Amino acid sequence: MKELITAGNIASTFCVTVQAILKRAQKENWAFIEEMGRGRGGKRRLYPLSSLPADIRAALSEAPLINDPVADIIREEPLPLPSVKVDTFAEWQRECRDARLRIVGEIERMKRIEGIEKALKHFVALAEAGKLNDTLAEAVEKANARKRKGKALCTFTIRNWMRALAKGGPDTLAPRANPPKPLPEWLPTLLKLYRQPQKPDVSWCYEQMAKAGTSLPSLRTVQREIKRLGVVEANRGRMGRREFKRLLAFSKRDFSELLPTDIYTGDGHTADMEVRHPQHGRPFRPEIVSILDVATRKCVGWSVGLAESSWLVADAIRHSVEQCGIPAIFYADRGPGFRNDLLGGPGIGILDRIGTGQESSIPYNSQARGVIEGFQKFWIRSAKASRAYVGKDMDREARKAMFDRTRAEVKAFGFAKSLTPWDVFLDWVGKLAESYNNRPHSSLPEIRDPATGKKRHRTPNEHWAALAPEADIIMEERAVLEDLFRPYEKKKVSRCVVKVLGNEYSSPLLTLHHGQDVFVGYDIHDPSTVWIRDSDGRAVCTATLNAHVTPYFPKSVVEKAREKRAKSRLERLERREEEVLAELNGGPPILEVSPLSGQELVFQRQHEEEFEEALHRKPAAPMTQRDRFRQAKQWEKRQEGNGAPLTSEEAAWLRSYRMTTEYQGEADLYEDFGEAMFG
Fold this sequence. Notes:
The chain is α+β, with helices and mostly antiparallel strands. Helices cover about 45% and strands about 15% of the residues.
C-alpha cells in the first residue's frame, strides 16, 4: 500500500508556507505524482512518504504524538479498525486494553512513514522525554497497568502488544485479572454463627470462635472479609425469604397497554389515627378499603368500616362500580376480606355475578401489588395532619399524652370529645380521595400544564379522561346494582321452604323447585324477605319469613278457650271476695290457723315485699332473635375475662343457646358482617 501526502499537509506540520515546501521539493527533486484537482491547471502534486527526506518523515511521524490534531495523511486504502468483542472485563482492564490499542495504532501509522524500528524508538523516546500530548501520555499510564506511575514503555513491550493483537485480537491486550483471593479457612465456620435470624454482630461471632480456640486474624480483618462478601451473601440466612427478596432482582410490570376498567386492585388499611366510634363514642382506628384502577391510578372507590370484612370490601367494589364501571379483573391479596364466597363464590359471588374475574397475588408478595401498596402511603401522610395520629413514627410522649386525654374524656363524658366524629371522618376520606385523583402522579405521562406552561405529570382524572374514549366502560343502573351486590347463598328447597341464617322462608312458587338448589339473596338489615334465583341465575320469586307457619288451632277456637278460662277465673275471684268481706264483717272465719312464729313472720314479710315489687314492675319487652344473639356475644366476652364473670345460670343458658340453630345462623351472619349486623 502506497501512502501519499500533499505539500499543504507538510507545510502545516512545519508551520511554513506551501510555497516554501514546493520550493524545497523542486530543489531536492522529490518524487511525486500528479492527479486532477483544484489548483494551477487543475492538477495537484502528491508526494510518496517513503521518498521524502528523513527529517520530513520524522516530523510527520512525530506531529500527531506532540500535537492534538492528527496529520492529514491521504491513504489509498483506509486502515480497518480492529473489532472489540463484548466482554466481561473489569473497568480497569477495559481502559488498559483500549490504551494499548491506541498506542499500537499510532505505531502502525508511524511505521509507514519511517519504518517499524524507527517508529518504536521514536515513540519510546518521546514518552521518556515527556513530550507526548496529554491524551497519549494518559494512554501510556493506563497501558502500563502498574501502580507505580512514571514508568515509561520499552520497544520490547510494544512489540509484544503488536504480536498479541495480530494473533488473538484486541481482547488479548487486556491484562489478566488477579486470581480471586481464596476464602479464609475460618470464614465458613464464622458464617454459620453469623447467618442466623437473630442477626448476631461480627464481634459476638468473633468472641465465640476465639473461645472455641479457633485461630483468627484481627477483628477488623474479619469485618472486612464479611463486607467483601457483599450485601446479598452477608444477609443470606439473616433474613427470611420475604425480607431477602428485597435484595434480589425484580420484574417491573408494564401498564402502558391497559385501559380504564381493565384491572381494579384493592387493599385494606387500618387508619393511623383514632376517631370517635359511631356506636359508643370511644376511640378506635377504622378500616379503609380502597379500590384503584391500574391503568390510570385513579381511586375509583372506597369504603370505611369498623374492621376489614368481606362486606366492607364488597361495599368498596360496589362504590367503584357505581362511580366508574365494572372491571374486567379484580386483583387483590389472599386475605379473608378478599377471598370468600361473598365475593368469589361460583355462581353466588358478587364478582362472578357482575362478570369480573378475580386474581390473587402470591402470599407474602406485597411487591407485586405496588400500585395499591404505594397508595396506602397517601392515607398515612394525610393522617399526620390530625392530632389523633398514632403512627409508628409518632413521638411516644405526644402519643401517650393524646391517649391519656381521650381516655379521660371517655370517663368524664362517656365518649372521646376531642376526636373526629364518624360522619366528619367519612367526609374527610371522600375529600382526600378526590384530591388524590386531581394531583399529578409520577407514574403517568408528562404533559404541559395549560395554566403555567410548565411540564408536569398527568393527574389520574386527566389520564382517565384521555383513555376513556378507547375503553369499553360498562355502567349499570342502580336497581340492577342493588341486586348484583346483594349477598346470595346456595340452599336446597324443601317443600317450598328455604332456610338461611337460621330463618325459614316460604313461597308457593317454589313448588316446582322441590329438592333443587337455588340461590337465596338477603338483606342483612331486613330479614323479612329473601330473593330466590334458580341455578341459572333467573329470578324465581320472593319468599317471606315464616310464610308457611299457621296457628296450631284456628284462631276462633283459641279465643273461645281463652274467654272460657278468663270467665272461670273471674268466678273464683268473686267467691274469694265474698269470703274476705264476710270475715271483715265479723263472720266466722273459714279456717282457723295457729299464730305464726317470728321466723315465719320474716319470711311472710319478704314474700309480701317481693309480691309488691313484682306487682309494680313493668313487664320486660320480649327479646328478639337478634337481641338474644347480641346478649350471647356480650356474655361470651365476659366469659373470656372482659368484664364481670358469668353466674352459673347465665353460663348454663349460654351453653344451651350455643346448641340451637338460631345461634348457628346468627353466627354465620356475624362472621360475614361483624358488628354491622346489629344495625
